Amino acid sequence: MRRPIALLLLLMLATVSVGAVAARWTTLSSGVTVTFRGVSTVNDSVAWASGSNSTVLRTADGGKTWQLLPVTTDKLDFRDIDAIDARTAYALSIGTGPASRIYKTIDAGASWTWQYTNEDPKGFLDAMAFWDAAHGIVVGDSVDDAFAILFTTNGGKTWTRAAGLPPAQTGEGAFAASGTNVAVFGKTDAWFATTKSRVLHTHDRGHTWTIADTPLQAGGSAGAFSVAFRDATHGIVVGGDYQKESEAIDNLAITSDGGRTWTAVKDHALSGFRSVVAQVPGAKTSWIAVGPQGADWSNDDGRTWQAIAGAGFHTFSFSPSGRLGFGAGGKGTLGRLEIGTP
Question: Tens-of-pLDDT digits for all 342 residues of the chain?
Fold first, then answer.
């Protein structure tokens, strides 16, 4: 049974001017204490969030109230959730072997279909993205130096492993930190950022692939955590070292050629480790990068950034309107970012 969770307003932060816009965080309490790693905003009213202890929440009133949605009695860690519309969403759990699963709902979370289980004992799924209701991609850590990438063309009824991928480096995978280490654009383009700070790209929905190095630091707890594109050529990759959240060393790069080459941004750059980057809908060259210690805003396609005062989150998702977005983080924290004029 679904039950409403009233959100307790903890803190209203002052509006911060970032160029021609103003950004204001409202930090909220969800009523749960799990760690959120997934969030997907459908519109200004509907958003979904997911996290540890098999937790999935949904709001239908812009975050004023949320519902806790039972997916399974198994104790899973839902590191990613992707909403197709107000009633349809996919939830992905992580873990070695069968702990990595995919569930789908078509009735706003009232019931869920268990669609996929990773049967490879070495396998570990990380994140997913969807071009449309039928076509999606799931990425995972490499197994025996081979990347594990899955595709669906029928709304998740079947998932097929991609072939013809470039070889992985030893131990190369992805950080399952925000559900955003894979990005899609248009009908066929997809990019995948790895722990070795490399970015894979397919322009034909997985039939062929290229791979490129980025100037982000890599190794141990450092690497590329999130990638996003505003069109087929302009993109940003962010990351850093998640064990040094306040440091901003070699954690940002931009591309204007679809990811064939990446340029480091070091001056006027990010103010710390960032686990997610997102383009602002309707604002062609505006972006936000968010991490556990805070957020940064760019109005010039990632060349310069300004810190946004307020709380930090593990993941973030804009509404298609570009007027607001939701962040999700540790200890049950949810946040609403409102965008307006100064």
Answer: 334 443 333 333 445 667 667 889 998 879 999 999 999 999 999 999 999 999 999 999 999 999 999 999 999 999 999 999 999 999 999 999 999 999 999 999 999 999 999 999 999 999 999 999 999 999 999 999 999 999 999 999 999 999 999 999 999 999 999 999 999 999 999 999 999 999 999 999 999 999 999 999 999 999 999 999 999 999 999 999 999 999 999 999 999 999 999 999 999 999 999 999 999 999 999 999 999 999 999 999 999 999 998 889 999 999 999 999 999 999 999 999 999 866
Parallel, antiparallel, or unpaired: how do β-strands 3-6 and 65-68 relate? Answer: antiparallel
With beta carbons less than 8 A apart as the criterion, state whether 165 and 200 touch: yes
Nearest to 305 by CA among 259, 258, 251, 341: 251
Superfamily classification of domain 3-340: YVTN repeat-like/Quinoprotein amine dehydrogenase (2.130.10.10)
Taking phi over 0 as left and psi of -120 to 50 as alpha, with beta for the rest, 206 belongs to left
Q: Hey, where are the domains in the chain?
A: 3-340
- Residue 329, judged by CB atoms within 10 A of its CB (0-12, 13-18, 19+), counts as buried
DSSP 87: S
Residue 274 token pair: 């960032």
Q: 176-208 burial, b if ≥16 CB within 10 A, otherwise e?
A: bbbbbbbbbbeeebbbbbbbbbbbbbbbebbee
> Which burial class, exposed, middle or buried, applies to 137 when counting CB atoms under 10 A from its CB (0-12, 13-18, 19+)?
buried
